[in-house]
Amino acid sequence: MRKTFVSGLITLGAGTAAVGTYLLVYRLWQEHWGATEEEIARLLPYDEVVPNPTWNATRAVTIAATPEQIWPFLIQIGWGRAGWYGYDWVDNGGKPSAWEILPEEQHLEVGKDFPMSPWTAQYCKAFEEPRWMLWRSTKDSKATSSDTSGTWLWYLDPINERHRRLITRMRDTYRWTNPLILPQQIILELGDLPFMRKCMLGIKARAERLSEQAQEHHAAGLRKRG
Length: 226
Fold this sequence. Notes:
This protein is an alpha+beta fold.
């Protein structure tokens, strides 16, 4: 009996330590990967739609490119389209993500879908081209708090003429009445950063390659004229 009691205490202590490490270390780090304190704290478009989020992830990466060179890669994203620029074997059915701009995927309007898989999607609810776009998981809702879906913002913040910060922000409130919410959300949270990090770095690589090609083309033109 005593041995069982001690074993239970050890198990409880280990579990508490694991949860504490997750909440105080990994979760804080993965919610804010790449973002500065100012970027984490600042207000971004439509933050008010989810005023008290349970999940509030702000990530950022610097891209050496203009908005016009970054934006096309954002609006063509999606399963079966340009892909997610990440782990294609998981998030694009094994099809390699595009490195080029796809003309047929360059039209953006409110309601446009961004497939996460063959069965799920996010939908554009508002945008300011080529600065930011807001997604939600429900097709018919507008960018208000009238439904329970969270928000997913893609935001290009200027640094200088040739550099931008790509900031993504996800805000959601968990529905605790669902008995499966805790294990589901922990699994989703654990897997979210690797995929988002890979996606954002994939956008960076593609936009910077496009920028380098444009600069090389411009330099070649100057040499030809000279």
